[in-house]
Amino acid sequence: MAEVPLPTPTDNQVPSTDIRDAVYAGAMLDKVVTSTELKYTDRLGGEHYTVDGIKAEGDKVVEETRQNLIPLSRQYMTLEAAQADIANIPEGSTTYYRSPDDSALAIEVMNVGGTLQPTGRKMPSQKAVDDIAEQTQQATDWLQRIYLGQQSQTTAISDTADKSNANEAMLQRIYLAQQLLSCAVNEVSGLPDTVPVMQLDALMTISTLGGALAALDGFDPGEGDGDGDQQRLLNNLYSLSMLGGALVPLDGFDPDAISVEARETYSEQYTFPKPGNIIKLFVTSPSGIPASKGEGEYYTTATIDIDGEILNIPYSSISVQGDSSAAYAKKNLNIGLYIDDKYDDLFTLKIGDCLPHDEWVFKANWIDHTNLRNLMSYHLWERMMASRDGWPKRDIDNYYVGKTGLDEMDTRATGYPVGYPCVMYINGDFYGTGALAIGKKKENYNIPKNKAEQIMIVMGGWKSITTMYDNAQVTDSDTIEIKAPKTVSEETLGYLQTWDAFANLAQADFTQQAPEHLDTRNIVDFYLLLAAVGATDLFAGDKAKNAIFYTWDGTKWYFGPYDLDTTYGLHYNGTQISYAADSAPKTDGGTFWKKILVTYADELAARYAELRDKDIFSVNCLYDIAAGLSAKYTHELDKAEINKWPTKPSLTVTSRDQIFSWFNDRLAYLDNKFNYTR
After folding, report:
1. Could you tell me if 111 and 105 are in contact, meaning their C-beta atoms sit under 8 angstroms apart?
2. Helix (H) or strand (E) segment spanning residue 126
3. Cα separation of 475 and 472, whole Å?
4. What is the pLDDT of residues 297-336, one digit of tens each?
5. DSSP alpha helices (H): ranges in 290-449?
6. What strand order describes the sheet that includes 463-464?
7. Alpha helix (H) ranges present in 270-402?
8. Shortest CA distance to 42 belongs to which of 16, 5, 75, 64?
């Protein structure tokens, strides 16, 4: 059938009732549905997709989406090919390229500022796994052979002990090498069962053997001029010399230098065991270090190395922490842990026996160059609570009393700060030693965000513990900080009024109502801790600065320590020893604390005696804690710290000797105060 030409359409506005426009539109509809062309032009000149065109565009979107699914689904043959496609790899995202050898299937890289950098993670190949097993077996065989050779060497040297002195000097060197061999081979008995670690420790042992045998370098047994026994000995030693030369390239091999990438324990949560060594924290901050709290967060990248397990954090932040300490040259720094470049949501990090936190604090220990006072005092507080009999033991355990199901399960909140020795590097430069610790977070006290009766207060501004309702009305920054609830309602203020009424009672009524408002174990131990360590920056009379004050029901309150660096006689600015060991506790001048001393006189004396008898309040205990902390820092790190910060105020003021001597004298004073004798 002959094709009927389309009529020329009009310029009528849409919709048009002209028959010409209707015929033209009908023809275009046929084109939309049946044409293989991707686009068509309407009667007014507009261009649109046909059905095939829509399908083609949809296919493009699907393919582009598929190609960009995490981790991008782009796996490149070479690193060069991946770098060439950098425009399609978002900043901070990762991709893979094929390994150029059989050590792995693929190697992960991250887009860091437009350049692909290795993350350290690889997809292991079966060949790599098989190689480890084979090499481990080889290492075992080598060690067995070396052991047999060493036994032969021992026998040979013994046989020739009374013979010719021609080779006496050489034999002495060889005998020394043999002794070192014996020590090294004995290490093999402690090899673990896991294949990778067994291989590494075996290689370390072989390295030690190689170093010992290097003493035989250049030794020549000759060609048989000696008698039979001596010649056999020399030949055996020559063989060992050759083996030693082969092992020398392993010198310096250290299995502890091997690191692995940390993996999520749960969604957006990483966990590490309690560190056995110092934590290494590396921060890259394009803007440097904030000069004050007012500068807020600087966005950074960070890496945390805990005993060789590496956590790379592409989205992190640093900000200045603390009030008076913010003015120091070396800052306390908050470390924020963000999920992505929106810097809204955070992930959590758990180190050791504590609650996972989304922010950790690098404590610079500016006023205390010993790096001991803060962590040591928290450990002492921990030991005090652990020494209590029965249940509940720790202060935080009171939260779980009467609960069931999930509510009764340990959240790992501690109710006091936890920290670990740390060394920090910023932009590749040594920043200093200190501690990586958790801060004053309500979660660490099992306090929710917004329940009126569950209150957490950080004391500040030297405000009185007897005027908490008035303190809450102060609007400037030099006052208490109500960490929870977020919304301070009239109900919450009512609980503070009830506390004030109790705290200001006369002695008889105070003593009668104390069990309702105070936990005996907590208030007794808190007083004794402050008295023992001389915590002059927490309470002065009834006025408080750094203490934590919290309740789970609005009625019974608990006291917790914070910032225990102004202790053991040290002045708050670190420039002098200003608090003598025989000084009365700073709390004792306050009316509230005087009532505490009367109300709990028997409990204080009995508990002090218990802590002394259990050797918790002792120089031995304090030394044990301090030694465990100091062992994490190397002497080289100590020197680097002093070179970096030569103006630290306490360098010529305090020391371990000063701390232990002061504590010894302090205990003598408290023994007299509480009438204690062993």
Report:
1. no
2. helix 126-159
3. 8
4. 999 999 999 999 999 999 999 999 987 788 899 999 999 9
5. 373-386
6. 463-464, 543-544, 539-540
7. 373-386
8. 16
> Strand pairing of 279-284 and 269-272?
unpaired
DSSP 45-101: S-EEE-HHHHHHHHHHHHHHHHHTSTT-S-EESSHHHHHHTGGGS-TT-EEEEE-SS
**Dihedral angle over CA of 157, 160, 164, 166, nearest 10:** -20
Residue corresponding to tokens 């002394």: 612
Both tokens of residue 652? Answer: 């010529």
pLDDT (tens digit per residue) in 411-462: 999 999 999 999 999 999 999 999 999 989 999 999 999 999 999 999 999 9
pLDDT at 55: 83
- 3-state helix, strand, coil split of the chain in percent (to 5) is 45, 20, 40
H/E segment holding residue 570: none
| DSSP character string of 546-565 | S-EEEESSSSSEEEE-----
In contact, 332 and 318? CB cutoff 8 Å: no
Residue 561 CA, chain-centre distance (Å), reads 22
Lookup: tokens for 484: 């929870």
Choose among 306, 245, 441, 415: nearest CA to 360.
441
The whole-angstrom separation of Cα 602 and Cα 604 is 5
Number of neighbouring beta carbons within 10 Å of residue 371:
25
534 three-class SS? coil
CB atoms within 10 A of CB 631: 11
Q: Distance between CA 559 and CA 528 in Å, rounded?
A: 12
Count of residues in the chain: 678
Q: Which amino acid is at 672?
A: N
Q: How far apart are CA 71 and CA 73, in angstroms?
A: 6
Cβ neighbourhood burial of 527 (10 Å; 0-12, 13-18, 19+) = buried
Computed over every residue of the chain, the mean pLDDT equals 85
Give the integer Cα–Cα distance in Å for 603 and 86: 69
Q: Of the candidates 672, 654, 669, 471, which has an alpha carbon nearest to the alpha carbon of residue 576?
A: 654
CA distance 330 to 340: 29
Question: Would you say residue 652 has pLDDT above 90?
Answer: yes
Bridge partners, 48 (sequence order): 40
> Which three-class secondary structure state does DSSP give residue 299?
strand
Chain centroid to CA 388: how far? 29
Q: Percentage of residues in the chain with pLDDT exceeding 90?
A: 59
pTM for this prediction: 0.67
For the chain, the straight-line distance linking the first and the last C-alpha, in angstroms and rounded, comes to 122
Rounded Cα distance between 210 and 76, Å, is 42
Q: In 3D, which of 414, 486, 481 has the Cα closest to residue 449?
A: 486
C-alpha distances out from residue 667 to 461, 572, 654, Å: 30, 22, 19
d(CA 653, CA 373): 14
List residues bridging with 357 in a β-sheet. Answer: 349
Decide: 655 and 370 in contact? Cβ < 8 Å.
yes
Q: Output DSSP code: residue 354.
A: S
Band of the pLDDT at 97, cuts 50, 70, 90? confident
| In contact, 79 and 100? CB cutoff 8 Å | no
Q: Which residues of 274-286 are buried (b: 16+ CB within 10 A; e: fewer)?
A: ebeebbbbbbebe
Q: Specify whether the CB–CB gap between 279 and 306 falls below 8 A.
A: yes
